[in-house]
Design goal:
277 residues; mainly alpha; two-stranded antiparallel ribbon; 2 strands; 66% helix; elongated
Length: 277
């Protein structure tokens, strides 16, 4: 029996709509806007990369998710996973990006871009470090959780991927992170100094000297220790702090000031004749 003409038209339109649902509109239950998917993985990846270049990150993610879901057994699906992480990263969704990068590292340990994924995962912590926006307290006064997380992750990266092409950038960022941590220790030391809690000052400054030497703060540490040990009536230790700075930075202009202060310190008391008996 033949269908009435109007029903034939409805049937054809319905079939057309069903076939189009994999081409645009929605995918995997998510609204993707007016995104038209190609009929092969490579072309969808190309479209996703073009969307990334245009900063249309949501559209790019739609293409990458389509490839990842529809072609899970192709090598290109792995690249789609990585690009999904990049799309989250560029949208400042750093927690989500970190999870994607870390999953990529776990699932694809022989992939040629393994070091890239590990580096970007570490970098997400750096991106979440509080800024120095002028209406907010200095970063050195803020919670240092993400700073420490960034330092730990970047240190682990430099140990695990010593030949990575991203090593130079990783070391540069790690130096900045270490400087932030050192400045936080100096901030806490100054907090204690204003309250005459000199033993606590010494502890904080010695931490900077031990863990963050050579990053541009040696002068502040040396003269800070000098002041603290003077307040604690420990001239020998005050001298040692300055002498260490002079020995390590003989050409620094501050070395002359340090030598002058050393000369003004009281001489060490002579040893008792029966010392050691």
């Amino acid at each position: 029996m033949k269908l009435p003409g109007v029903l034939v038209v409805v049937a054809l339109l319905t079939a057309s709509s069903l076939s189009a649902c994999a081409s645009f509109g929605t995918f995997a239950g998510q609204d993707t806007g007016d995104v038209t998917f190609a009929d092969n993985a490579e072309e969808n990846m190309r479209k996703g990369d073009a969307a990334m270049d245009a900063k249309n990150y949501q559209e790019a993610a739609a293409f990458f998710e389509f490839v990842k879901t529809k072609y899970p057994y192709l090598e290109v699906a792995k690249n789609a996973e990585l690009r999904l992480a990049d799309a989250d990263y560029e949208r400042d969704r750093f927690a989500e990006a970190r999870e994607r990068y870390q999953n990529f590292v776990r699932l694809h340990p022989t992939h040629p871009k393994l070091d890239y994924a590990a580096f970007r995962a570490a970098l997400t912590h750096y991106k979440e470090i509080p800024s120095d926006f002028f209406l907010l307290p200095p970063a050195s006064e803020k919670d240092q959780v993400e700073v420490r997380n960034a330092a730990s992750a970047l240190t682990e990266f430099t140990r695990s991927y010593p030949s990575s092409e991203h090593m130079a950038e990783a070391k540069k960022v790690l130096d900045e992170v270490r400087l932030r941590l050192a400045e936080h220790e100096l901030y806490v030391a100054s907090f204690y100094a204003r309250r005459n809690r000199w033993p606590a000052v010494v502890v904080r400054l010695n931490t900077v000297a031990k863990e963050y030497g050579g990053i541009g703060l040696d002068e502040r540490v040396a003269f800070g220790l000098y002041d603290a040990h003077k307040e604690l009536k420990e001239p020998a230790k005050a001298k040692d702090a300055l002498q260490k700075f002079v020995d390590e930075h003989p050409d620094d202009p501050a070395a002359k000031k340090a030598q002058k202060l050393i000369a003004e310190l009281p001489a060490a008391a002579p040893a008792s004749p029966d010392a050691g008996t």
